[in-house]
Design a protein that fits this description.
About 45% of the residues lie in helices and about 15% in strands. The chain has about 260 residues and is an alpha/beta fold. It has a 7-stranded mixed β-sheet, with helices on both faces. The radius of gyration is 19 Å and the shape is globular.
Length: about 260
């Protein structure tokens, strides 16, 4: 396939768009795609740069590791060039610290937008912030060499980049607590068995598997996928009866749309 001109290419993030499929690539394999505030801002910008034609967003990474997590330079007194160190942030007010973390979280929040389906293609290490970035997506396809780990608790921190909600939703409270509190590795077999991964494949088949899944998602009408995604996303918060009502309302909208009848 011919290479595509990037819509965005900065700070370790590249965004390309091929009609209905956008690909966001982490592009710093020399540092195992370690994350920084600059990378998070670039991810946020990538989400804001998606054309309206995009229906599927694939998140992938160059090199042997998906992402080794937060760049440890963040914890040094000097931090990153042009950025306050995490030590400096800790000395700020509660409001300032909350606003800064909220800004970082934006890089992880947009992947579950109702108008797209996002797929993380994960190989090698996905540690800490890397694990949370994979969890930010709707679906995960993993290589058989994948190793997930939530190491924040081991460092005296908590996972704060939106990963706790999807993790509990996927594997349940008890297993999520055990994964986070121990910081242990989760392999491809366990990820697929527990629902963390939709599919585990040999590493050399990862790209092909993601292409096949993307094509399958594009086969259904866009509006039906959007309505179905909204139904499923809200199911955890609704009662059974409330979900029945939501299904009826969604189906009525679809039937009227298909029949060309306005509300």
């Amino acid at each position: 396939m011919a290479s595509l001109d990037p819509v965005l290419d900065k700070d370790g993030v590249r965004l390309t768009v091929d009609d209905a499929i956008a690909t966001v690539t982490l592009t710093n394999p020399a540092k195992r795609n370690a994350q920084s505030p600059a990378l998070w801002r670039a991810l946020t910008q990538a989400g804001r740069s998606l054309p309206g034609s995009v229906r599927v967003v694939v998140l992938r990474a160059e090199g042997k590791s998906f992402s080794a997590g937060l760049d440890r330079q963040a914890f040094t007194p000097e931090g990153f060039d042009g950025e306050p160190s995490f030590i400096d942030l800790a000395r700020g007010s509660d409001a300032e610290l909350d606003a800064t973390i909220a800004e970082y979280q934006e890089a992880f929040a947009w992947w579950r937008r109702s108008d797209i389906v996002s797929i993380a293609a994960v190989q090698g290490h996905a540690i800490g912030a890397g694990f949370q970035l994979a969890l930010a997506c709707d679906l995960r396809v993993v290589a058989d060499d994948v190793q997930f780990a939530m190491r924040e608790t081991s460092l005296g921190l908590v996972p704060d980049l939106t990963g706790t909600h999807p993790l509990v939703g996927l594997v349940g409270y008890a297993r999520a607590l055990e994964i986070c509190a121990t910081g242990r590795l989760v392999t491809a077999d366990e990820a697929e068995r527990t629902g963390l991964a939709n599919l585990a494949v040999p590493a050399d088949q990862l790209d092909e598997a993601v292409r096949d899944l993307s094509a399958a998602l594009l086969a259904a009408p866009r509006d039906a996928v959007i309505e179905t995604k909204a139904l499923l996303r809200g199911a955890q918060e609704r009662t059974y009866e409330e979900q029945r009502v939501a299904e009826r309302a969604a189906q009525a909208r679809r039937l009227r749309d298909l029949a060309g009848v306005g509300d």
